[in-house]
Amino acid sequence: MPAAAPPRLSCEWSSRTRDVFQKDFKKQLHSEEVLDHPLKPLVVTMSESRIIKLRTVGGSTTSSTRSSTPTPTQSSLYSMDPLGAALEGSDPLSQLASQQKIDPLSAMAADSWVEPIEGKRGKEKITSTTVVDDGMRETWASRKAGILCKFTTSEKLSIVTSFLSGGEKVIVKAQGSVVDKVRTRLEQLDDFEEGSVRQMLDLSQQEYMGRIEQLNSELVQAWHQDQRVKALKIAIQCSKLLVDTSVIQFYPSKFVLITDILDIFGKLVYERLRTKSDYYAPGSKFPTCLPENFTPDMVPESAKETCRNWFYKIASIRELVPRLYVEMAILKSYSFLTSGEFSQALMRLTRMVRGIGDPLVSVYARCYLCRVGLSINSSDRAYLRENFYDFLAMYNQLFSASVRMDLVLQKVDLSTYLTLYTPALDYILQSVAHDATEKTLAEILDRCKRKGNSALLFNTIMAAFKPAYVAARATQFVELLTCCDEEGFPKYLLFRTLGLCLSLADPPAEHCLQILNDVWKVVSKLTNPAQYVSCAEVWAQYVSKHLATREVNTFLGDIIKHMSVGRAYENHYASLQTVMERVLAHANDFETLLTMDKFLPMLDIFQKESVKVEVCKSIMSHYTKTYQFQTTNDPVITNALMFICRVMHDSVNALTVEDEKRQIGNLICSFVKRVDFARDFEQQLSFYVEARASFTNLDVIHALLVQSVNRLAVDTRCIVKGHHTRKTASFVHACAAYCYITIPSINSVLMRLELYLLSGQVALLNQCLGQADACLKAALSLIPDVPKTMEVDGKQRTSEPYIVSYICNFLSTLLIVPDSPEQGVLYLTRGLLNVIQTYSWDQQSTGRSTVYLHVLDMLAAAAQETYPYHIDMVDSNDVLYGSDPKFITELNRMCSVVVEEVLSHLKYLGTSELYQKQSSLALELLIRIAVKADLSKPDLATLALNLWNLAQRHGCMDLKLAVRITEYMKKRFSSSNDDVTFGTKTTLQIR
């Protein structure tokens, strides 16, 4: 009878217990003759007819009516049972290497060689084809996202586990004989959980990643439920997944997902050992957890024994890859045993990896070992170089006949296959190169030169070491790369990587031109536009930074030549845009750049409007930043910039967003400001006329042009000191006419109002009275069109405060505008009063009354014999009328009308019970009457007293202000009318 099954093992069991258990078990074994090897598992397969066939691997087949789910393929069995595979006479690792399925997306990785994925312009992430600033090594965390994004697949994936529900195939372990039961017990750490092992098939990449995340959650949950064996088994199962290369293009992403789980497992083991270590601080009687920087002598013996047990359990795992990965995951736990164990363990594991036959699996195992070693801060870094040299030792295997045969069977080309090595190899070599000297670079470079087909190695070296080291040996690298065999690794990628290095560090100045010539002898022969432009976008920065304008012009010409063949530029706008930006950013002389005969033709190859506009915006941005305080009048530069600005302007349409209009408008305005013909004002005006014709869609440009022409007229007046000749008078009249014609094309009413008033003031300054009248009349006609609300700080506000402010400014100009003999007295003022009366004001506000009060101020000033200010060479009404009684009578009549309007509004405010506003308005009117009116007239005196009573009726007046006004009014009344006593309770008929 077979012996009873042993009790379930706990996670922490000693090696002595295991040995005793094995000896006792062997004594109970008996022998019997069998037809098949007992270690060959039974596999249950479901056929289409639902008839179940039981068969042994390599044996006969029998039928059964038992129901089950489909079973894995034979290759899957080998991956789970290495002994069974060994019995077939083949190496299990070789079997794994031949399991790779045909990947329909294999062309995607190959295409990445032909047309690399473009990142952000100006910021190249470091991969096998890019370079990073070696001042700080790129961490693995920063690499993971890039690996998961790049190495994707649409191939169906599978996962073998016993800890997830669902799936399509089940492996049933036959335990009918005693030998089978013994084997099950002895391999408990190697096998899956008792019962069935489920293989999930036809998983998409997203589903596969979700299953991996479930395994991660299962591991953490099992650990927190004190199921250490289950957690360890999950870690082992996850490690076994790294043996499978059936979907080879997904392997780097699979490595990232699985090692994340192993990292969590290693951290859980480490923290458990640390919490189990009771530490008594010197002088303390209470135990505490070990500190972060503990030493092995602080760890109690019980915790050390537990730590050893973990390593013993892991050492009993029979398969090499899971044993390596799980031990590497808990490698940090060696710190509980001895401080000198890390170096020996790292070197031991480095040599153990040599047993992995598949070079792809091997290089990623070395990558994980290097990452773990760096995380434990081991001072000994010899293992890093040893791992890289071990990779060099098996490097030729990547190009062996067996690998090529497998690639042919799987329809995967060699270049696609080599891309899978770059994440791991880059990390290994960058770990070696961190803080390394040039001597290390020379040593590694010398070893790599001895290898055949060393393009992948050279590319990794340039990506790993400091760009300064590579730049110092630039000529040597050019020679090496030129002689490289292009099979499997395209040569253009090598020169692209070299260009990235030289963009971060400067080569010797005397070699700059020679380096470019040698490189471009190879690059210019490329017939694939994608390969050519990927090199050109990198070397554009080198050319513009280190070489003269002539070389830049030749460089752009070569790009135009290559990209114009078959209109190849249509597929590479992003790369060509990067070329332009780098040339612009590093141009030594921007104006010389604009005059090159290949610059505008380079711009013309951007046939797509949106891209061309972006390039033009980039050109103008660089120009305005470079020549922020400089001007130009060079016709070639002006015409070139005018063409660029016209391209931006013509892209504006009804669908263009406001922010885009603002950006384009600001750039064009910057250009207009920088064109200066000095004292050649006629040429300057001609330029403004051309600009107006070219830029018709943007208000901000027209506003700038109007202001610029007004400034031109003012500068002309300053030069002639106000005494215009016939020529200058004609010129300023032309300027005024330009402004009057241009302003109506502006859509914004508010902008037109401001510009009409400004242009009228400038025309008046230059004695252009007819143009001034025309501008002021146009402004008056626009006031009714002002919208009732306007945006202020992102919020809609009423426009009345703006109208009040504008009319006050307008009134200050009207005071000095002379009347036209054909229009009558104060015809512009009368027109303004008509506009104020017809404008739709808010009745509950004091906006209209405030305007009327300012009109009273202006009329009072107009009645003076001499105005407070004048314009030279312009006779205002004080000179024209000389205080003529008829003129004064007209002013009084207009004042009466205005006062009546104010009194009417006062009555409305009282009726609406807006006493605060009524009191304030009454006080304002009282002050003007008291200061500017003739109080000797009884009606005005009575009006003043009634306004005073109204202002203080509701207690809204400030006490100090009331006292001052009282004193002032007493003086006025006492000097002007003895019959009127201040304070009389005369009531104005206003409620």
From TrEMBL:
Coiled coil: none annotated. Belongs to the VPS35L family. It comes from the Eukaryota. GO terms for biological process: endocytic recycling; protein transport. The lineage of its organism: Eukaryota, Metazoa, Ecdysozoa, Arthropoda, Hexapoda. This is VPS35 endosomal protein sorting factor-like. Residues 55-80 are annotated as: Disordered. It comes from Megalurothrips usitatus. GO terms for cellular component: endosome. It is found in: Endosome. Residues 55-76 have a biased composition (Low complexity). Keywords: Endosome, Protein transport, Transport. InterPro entries: VPS35L.
